Amino acid sequence: MTRRTVLQSGAALLPLRGQAAAPLPPSTLDFQRLLPKRAPRANIFTLPDYMVWCASMVRTPDGVCHMMFSRWPRALGFDAWATHSEIAYATAPRPEGPYTFRHAALPA
Questions:
Q1: Phi, psi of 81 (to 5 degrees)
Q2: Nearest one of 85, 87, 48, 47 to 67, comparing CA atoms
Q3: CA 70 → CA 3, 48, 87, distances in Å?
Q4: Is 47 inside any structural domain?
Q5: Is residue 10 in some structural domain?
Q6: pLDDT in tens, 74-88
């Protein structure tokens, strides 16, 4: 047998046969329990005229939280993310906010 026929036949996987892990028990991890029942309004970052999506935050050594996010004009509807998105920037003193919009970092 050549290497190619061994790989094509699946014979290369034979050493793994019988070593499959036992089925895992159902997870008892409940993320809902970890979330607050209601997020304070100050923790929700919105821009009146824009849809905001896909935020990512980092904290610098000076303690400032920098958030980059995608935004597009609300008037164009949800599907405009594919044609009119831009990357924008906001800052906050804490990870949960409140965030202050600064500028469009990569305009559409």
A1: -60, -30
A2: 87
A3: 48, 14, 5
A4: yes
A5: no
A6: 999 999 999 999 999
